[in-house]
Design goal:
12 helices, nine-stranded parallel beta sheet, Arginase, Chain A
Length: about 375
């Protein structure tokens, strides 16, 4: 079992819990300690995991997040009105090589996902997204991956994997489990035209920082079917992360990134959540801990909805365009929208739930103006969703 490699939470952090309120996270979650060992995982829904591996950092001068300081900030936050069972499994140790660390990360996360536990991974560098992605290999299913990042991180396919090139490894290496990839918050001046062309060629989705900030609610459908969310903390503006050379003036505010992580928590399919590239700074530790808190809050009110199997709870709208009919569904309970993918539907209206694409009310309104949603077009061109 890969869990035997995990290091317990520091005694210094555990001693700090004695000063906290009973309703604080630190006093209401199961914690891997040196004295008690690993907590019992039966009934656990979410598991925190720290990974300090940073040898493939793009910039070695960066001082990565101190996992002890991060935990102190997270533990002192009060839990919401949740009925969540959460465990902190401690940290993945640095292996003899980066590849050794990758193997342990992959095996631990794969076991957690298999148990139905959602890992919350706080990692030093974003190249860890590669072994996290590979943790889905054994399930034989295609996954939807979303990245909140100021870069696409394609880099050069044959270069050493790093926090700026891990996506090249993901899209070029077999087996390919990637069904779709969406980037939220990219900034054009950090990405080459060739990278933007590649995103279009592969029918991946990308949304500039300004687009996302102007309508955060429009990101909920983009996250609704995601299996894996990878967040690069460098997508957050420097002023909200305590400055530092790792960040830039433009980026998401603390309020905006927390709203996005809450949407991620709401996603009923999200099986893996990771935050990377945070400097070791008191302000960034506070913000990363609050991002995790909002993810937990979203998770606590997850609702699984299926317009096909639960048709009585949905309104159905058919929009007749010049060349086709688009069928939309709206939840009576949550107000969320879906649109049917024509290519995957049968002729006798016996639709498959897999043919449903999350969308927004604005997509429906645009369709009423004879404008086909861009997401629908890309999903159709890919031939599957």
């Amino acid at each position: 079992m890969a869990f035997e490699y995990l290091l317990p939470v520091s005694e210094k952090v555990l001693a700090h819990n004695a000063l906290l309120l009973p309703q604080s996270l630190g006093n209401s979650i199961a914690i891997h300690s040196g004295q008690e060992g690993l907590p019992e995982l039966e009934g656990i829904q979410l598991a925190l995991l720290g990974v300090s591996e940073n040898r493939n950092a793009f910039e070695q001068k960066i001082t990565p997040i101190d996992l002890d300081d991060f935990r102190r900030e997270l533990y002192k936050l009060n839990r919401g009105n949740w009925k969540l069972q959460i465990a902190d499994l401690g940290n993945v140790p640095m292996g003899n090589s980066v590849e050794d660390t990758y193997v342990v990360v992959k095996e631990v996360v794969s076991e957690l996902v298999q148990l139905g536990i959602v890992p919350i991974v706080i990692g030093a560098t974003q190249d860890l997204s590669y072994p996290l992605y590979r943790s889905f290999d054994q399930f034989g299913e295609m996954i939807h991956m979303v990245s909140i990042d100021h870069r696409f991180d394609f880099g050069i396919a044959d270069q050493l994997i790093s926090s700026h090139s891990y996506m090249s490894k993901i899209i070029s290496e077999s087996p390919s489990n990637l069904k779709s990839f969406t980037n939220l918050g990219y900034q054009s001046f950090f990405n080459t035209q060739e990278e933007r062309d590649l995103m279009d060629k592969m029918y991946f989705e990308s949304y500039r920082l300004g687009e996302v900030v102007n309508d955060l609610a429009a990101c909920e459908p983009l996250l609704r079917d995601a299996h894996f969310l990878s967040i690069d903390a460098r997508a957050i503006q420097a002023s909200d992360m305590g400055s530092g050379s790792n960040y830039t003036p433009n980026g998401f505010s603390g309020r905006e990134i927390c709203a996005l992580t809450r949407y991620a928590g709401l996603s009923p399919k999200l099986s893996l959540f990771g935050v990377f590239e945070s400097d070791n700074h008191p302000m960034s530790n506070k913000l990363i801990s609050q991002m995790v808190w909002y993810f937990l809050e979203g998770f606590s009110i997850r609702i699984v909805e299926d317009p096909i199997r639960q048709s009585d709870y949905f309104l159905k709208y058919t929009v007749t365009l010049e060349s086709l009919d688009l069928i939309f569904f709206k939840s009576k309970k949550t107000g969320r929208w879906w649109v049917l993918l024509e290519q995957l539907s049968s002729t006798d209206n016996n639709f498959n739930s897999a043919a449903l694409l999350p969308c927004s009310e604005n997509d429906y309104k645009e369709a009423c103006k004879d404008i086909i949603p861009d997401r629908w077009i890309k999903a159709q061109k890919k031939g599957f969703y």
